[in-house]
Write a structure and sequence with these properties.
heterodimer, A: 280 residues, alpha+beta, BirA Bifunctional Protein, domain 2, nine-stranded mixed sheet, 8 helices, 12 strands, B: 188 residues, mainly beta, SH3 type barrels, OB fold (Dihydrolipoamide Acetyltransferase, E2P), 3 domains, six-stranded antiparallel sheet, five-stranded antiparallel sheet, 1 helix
Amino acid sequence: MDSIKILKMRDVLMQSIRAFFHSEGFIEVETPIRMKTPCMELHIDAEPSGSRWLRTSPELYHKKLLAQGADKIFEIGKCFRHGERGDLHHPEYTLLEWYRAGGDYTAMLADVAKILRAVGISTAWKRWTVAETYEKFAGWNPVENVDADRFDLDMVEKIEPALPKDAPVILMDYPAECCALARLKPDNPTVAERWELYLNGIEIANAYSELTDPAEQRARFGKWGEQRKTLGKTVYPIDEEFIRCLEKMPPAGGCALGIDRLFMVLIGAESLDDILPFRD
Amino acid sequence: MYDVSELKKGLKIEIDGDPCIITDFQFSKPGKGQAIYRCKIKNLSTGTSFDRSYRSGDKVDKAQLESRTFTFSYESGDDFVFSDNETYEEVHLKAEQLGRNRYFIIEDMQVDILFHNGKPLDITLPNFVEKTITETEPGARGNTATNVMKPAKIDNGYEFNVPLFINVGDAIRIDTRTGEYYDRVSKG
């Protein structure tokens, strides 16, 4: 397809998304791209930028804004992840991130349903728990038998290829181990309140009921730090300002949605290479 | 050793002592999970293909491969004999090892032979070889269409399709990579 035509179609998508958020009373924010310390997650590596790091997501700043009293915010901007390149990965990509103070992951599900409808995607989705999905397609239960290595491998080899292509899928309630910044389910602490949206078997969005417990958050960063050290990866310093902000942050739901991938699926492309005007 | 992050399509690696080539490669990273490098791999010794996934941090052996240029010398029974352009060392390859390539080897042809731990593994011929048609139905004069084909043979019995205007005695070029007719060599 003609690259200018692609840009025009993408512009229509961006207008619909912004219109949705403004109609719901969200404000669009801009937060720093260069960070003193990136968010510590086990398998996400930040790109160094001089004495700073390029953000892997705007999450930490958004939570600081919630702690300062913001209640409905969204941002659309470039994020960066080191070493990620494939048909569905580009080291520089556009992320839509939004938060609702007082909400949880079900509120985010209602939001994403409205966004999908606004861009012409049916929301007659399948809503499956991660446990039932793994039992069905991989023959084991990752909530009862925690095995992070097998979880990732089976996700790629058995689950994603088996997901229906004719309807969106929401996978929800992930094993507690798999979530750095999500709240555990109050009535079942073996799972975290997290969902992921899949379109055509491609992961599009990730949402949490956000963790607001500073002690628990510090413990998780500490654990990921230890594991990163074992893997020979950079251990990022903990952002103390972020830990402190959790003391004031209200309960909230948050969601991150990959704009490039959503657009790719919308126009029926199979690789990000087909839709990005410039490639790494 | 390669780190998995260096893997890509076309890379030659070694698995359990066998030389292999990555024929397809896909980078995957399930949400918040670790990077998974999914490969389709062909064993260059046995020709069999299989799937294998690697995780970040995995290491993969480099294939100990060496390619040298040889000149075709002579055919002896079932053996094709080539001599090294620098050392004149002779290498014997069996017709079955050469597969379809055996039909396209001509006098003094320059070929590249790929060795794995000193053992000949694969041969690369020049992309085109000139041959003379020895057998085909008479040509339809004036029909220069290249999309209508008929069967033909060359001196060693190799059978393939040529356009209707080709006749016995015509010199043509075969694409050795596909084994198909490429073009007619104009005379004079």
